[in-house]
Amino acid sequence: MNIKLLELEKDKARLIIQGEGHTFMNTLTDEILKDPDVDVARYVIEFQFSDPELLVTTNGKKDPLDVIRDACTRTSGYCDELLSLMEKQ
Prior knowledge:
Blueprint lengths: L2 E7 L2 E6 L4 H11 L5 E7 L8 E6 L5 H25 L1
Helix pairs in contact: 1-2
């Protein structure tokens, strides 16, 4: 996964996540929005085969990149848990 940082401020990050589509981006934005310090988490896929652009803004208490990392870690944990449960079947 390649990531291109377009804009970074204390309370705002805009980045492109190459090669991802709606499935991953919906999951990621939903998980980011669970953080109470997040104001906005949204993505745009401008054209059918273009890479998504993610926008995250916070209330200034947290770095937006840390919020994105935390959301990715939680999502990965959910996937690991599901795989573990499936292996027990």
